[in-house]
Amino acid sequence: MKRIITVMALLAMVTSFANAQVKSASAAKSAVENAKKDIENPKKNTKFATWMKYGKTLIDAYDAPAGNGWINASRKELELVQGSEKPVSTENVVINGQNWVKEVYPTRNYYFNPAGQLGLIEITKPVIENALDQALEAYTKANELDVKHSKTKDITGAILSIAGKYVDEAYTSYTLGDLVKASEFFEKAALASAAEPVAQVDSNSIYNAGFTAWLSGNMERAKGFFEKSREIGYYGEDGETFAKLADIAEKSGEAEKGKEYLEEGFQKFPQSQSILVGLINYYINNNGSTDRLFELLGEAKKNEPNNASLYYVEGNICNQLGKIDEAVAAYDQCAVIDPNYAFGYIGKGQMFYNQAIKYSEEASNEMDDAKYMALVEKFENSLKACVEPFEKAIEVLKDEQTKVAVAEYLKNACFRFREADPSYKEKYEKYAAMVTASQQQQ
Question: 138 near 192, Cβ under 8 Å?
Fold first, then answer.
């Protein structure tokens, strides 16, 4: 989820509304009506300039309701360009678990993120319905009339601008929870980029059209876009395209087809957790032999014998199959191959930490004192076992966010023993301070 938000936000920032004065709604509508008369005039509608002008007026009409705001603008910046225009109302709203401020205007809503920047512009009263669709048609017609291709650059720029605005709309719809609209806008963005003379494959929009359709529960639509994404060689982060196609196949009663997607994905992305979990679930649910997983992994190791991540994958497989000793051996092999590969340590630490949670839950439900104490002992041993690998991960990690996440595990683990052992108290205070410092910076 985080990935798609990040990708769309970057695209939205690039293509968002410029910091410039826009036409009033009435002026924009009047301009469209005048330009439309020209395209309906047989003497003028065969001219390139007529259609370019019509497309431009439609874009202006599309922009007009947004006012003078632009993505990432601060309130102070907006005060300078908005003059006397004030919001009709202001309210606090929660978006994706964060507190935003919504300003309501007659034609739009401005959403300010926790940093106080304009993060979303939602048009509530468009000047012209489907203005972008009509503008794309106008520029497509202009391209047909540009027989000498002397204006290709101008047409390309105009169409790419439309594609970018579709992406903005998709990002806004997605963030506000309208997944159906988000998928439709991503599809339109991809179609705009594919239009002549641009003729580009917008792989991000194709994938995201499928992703948002999948989230909305429209599996047939999602499948079409994910198949297209697979066809063009765009597999999403860590091969998510294969995982999603397999999920759709499974829900459609085509488990065998789902397995084919997963095995294809595993060969390209053996480190993908979603693909790995899908394969494990397939073999377990269908009473198949999990030996096939190790066969696939063995093939990957032959191709890349010094790839530490493959042993991390092996550790995860063994862990999920309950083969703890084999999992430890695989995780430890990561460090043999590459001492700076953090995920081997993280995998081992998480395995013992999760094991401790399991024993804790079992102990809380155990009524027999002897069995209870045995489970508590297992709980504490597992909790202590996670500390060393997590600390090694902290030593080699470069990414600060991941460091903080590991520190959170260590803080929780050391908390249990802080009163009985000074060394654990010191560790607890150290990692608690790391977590607190990160929270204060956010």
Answer: no
CA dihedral 238, 240, 242, 245 (to 10 degrees): 180
CA dihedral (292, 298, 300, 301) in degrees, to 10, reads: 160
Q: Domain ranges for the chain, please list them.
A: 2-234, 337-441
| Nearest Cα to Cα of residue 276 among 315, 222, 233, 220 | 315
Distance CA 426, CA 226 (A): 50
Closest alpha carbon to 169 in 60, 1, 14, 16: 16
pLDDT in tens, the chain (442 residues): 444 544 444 444 434 433 344 568 899 999 999 999 999 999 999 999 999 999 999 999 999 999 989 999 998 899 888 888 899 999 999 999 999 999 999 999 999 999 999 999 999 999 999 999 999 999 999 999 999 999 999 999 999 999 999 999 999 999 999 999 999 999 999 999 999 999 999 999 999 999 999 999 999 999 999 999 999 999 999 899 999 999 999 999 998 999 999 999 988 998 787 887 788 778 777 766 778 778 878 877 887 889 898 899 899 889 988 999 999 999 999 999 999 999 999 999 999 999 999 999 999 999 999 999 999 999 999 999 999 999 999 999 999 999 999 999 999 999 999 999 999 999 999 999 999 998 887 6
Please say whether the beta carbons of 313 and 270 come within 8 A: yes
Alpha carbons 340 and 334: distance in angstroms, whole number: 9
pTM of the prediction? 0.72
